[in-house]
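Same chain as my last thread, 661 residues:
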Amino acid sequence: MCLGVLFSVEAYSQKSPLDKVSEEQLKMTIYEKDTSAAAVYLNKHRETYFDYTDRDGFIIINEFTERIKILDKAGLDYATKKISSYKRDESKEFVTKVWGNTYNLENGKIDVEKLDESAIFEREVSEHFDETAFTMPNAKVGSVVEWGYKTVSPFYKVDDLVFQEDIPVMAYHATIRTPGAFTFRRIRRGYFEVQPEEKIEKRTLGVNYNMQGGYGTSTQNSRSARLSFSELVAVYEKENVPALKDEIFVTNPRSYRMSVIYELISTEFNRGNKKEYATTWDEVARTIFKDSRFGDRLERTRFLKGIKESIFAKKLSDHEKIEFILDHVKTRMTWDGEYGKYAEDELDEAYERGSGSVAEINLILIALLKECGFEVYPVLLSSKQYGIPLYPTLEGYNYVIAGVRNKGKIILLDATDKMSSPNILPNRVYNWTGRMVSFQGVSQEIDLFENIAPASTAFLKVSLTEEGILEGEYKERLSSLEALNLRHRYFAYDKSEWEDEEIERFGISEMLDYNLEGVEDLNIPIVRSFNFKVERGVDRVGNKIFVSPLGFLRLSENPFKSDTRQFPISFDYPFSKDITINMELPQGYKVSSLPESTNLGLPDDSGTFFYSIAENNGILQVMMRFKLKKHIIPVEYYESLKEFFKLRVDKENEKVVLEKV
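reply #2:
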């Protein structure tokens, strides 16, 4: 006989585990530690523990209680709560036991209004996520709102402990109970210290079960039993957690939000029967490839036979075939905006409807390349909006592209962007390294930045008149991602408005003979050229003219103004910018003062700035080169970076002084 356990989760009391709301809290008008805060968490409280059901085995239960003080009108947004719940196949998380109260001080008395069940709404957000949402009644500036709810999950994923929010948190408490059968790695994310108090406790569950006879026949006898086990109890507490503030040049602040992550390493429900989960990126990649929504999808490619035959009939070279296949998938498919590494639909279904997720489109691309005889493999990566994973995890990747091995080189392809080309991928993917996975499960780390070399090279021939008018010719060559970004902007605009936008962008008075050579051909650089006129391009004082040699191309202000920095500085990608200017000076004037040439460098050879200027026979010759070699600058280099940009801005804005002879 075998035992089948039937267990129903008991309903817990809806009483708040927090102290009563005080009159002092209701009279509070600002949060002294952050007077700009629109609202503040008075408390974030959480209990997480495991229970057991006949259907799912161990399940994870979370009980959340949160209390927020609303300080101004912007803080009213925090009177609405949205709770996401995950589902996959026949399993799903669900939200239950939702309650809430709004507290207001009315005529010296505390008035309480309860959240009505009719104000709680549930909806399906996507194939894998539902949402439970509610807005607290009668919430206004000065209110204190609080709510509680329970989540029940059949998945062995402990939700992250999120200490830091977009508003300050005055008091955080979490108790996490994990049975001895589960081993977790705990990872701290963000710049903070927290040390939980830990102890081992015995726990006993009362369970009901049915006795089943041979061959699965039930004896219809319901019995009860007690299930005992040890669990690790970890209690986390922290006070006065600052709000997560926005900073410039941060790709994804979520990557630095103060959190503790529980990553499942192994389970051992029976002694000696230990199951280990992915602990290296190699293992993660192999596990993903074995998933039916990934590797298996690439085996069912019969629907591509026809296009394969038409490609072979064209007698193309390998390079031409790769470009043709990429263009075919880009033309046929439209990205629906969904990220993900798994193709939730069969590839032939997505191909038939002409739209799909990142995984569906790029697995179709991989399948077609493979069908045409290329050595091609999926390359897993994490997009910018997803963040950088801190450790090997199945959740570390949310994107897949194609990697073709051809003549000793790897060519990277992404068909979700209509403007992409071989090795020139959408900006959203340049976040971290990729991992190429072979059909045998072997993986290799891929440097996404290795072959891109984005660059802008501009040449200006300018004449300066005695009246202070600048007229000249502008020619700029943009390559790689610099060209891709310009194409995105150009094709997003109404062509009748594009030149007006360019005039405003460059800050010039007139623009003539504008041309974008190569903008339609995605495989070559763009050459942008035009004639221009700047009517007020100089300052005049008496018989002297003061002119900025870089003119409308100079960096006018330092983007780094803050005295302190929380997070590393993240640029989109490494790039270089070169400017060469030949300026003809007005007759009857001589140079009385020239800026000095300079050469600057960032720590760890992260970037350089070079500036040179000279006058020769009435021609002012200016050269500027800025090169960013690393797209992520550690936070400890912030002061150096800020000073580097200050010196660069100062130099680019120094004026040449001309004096009438």
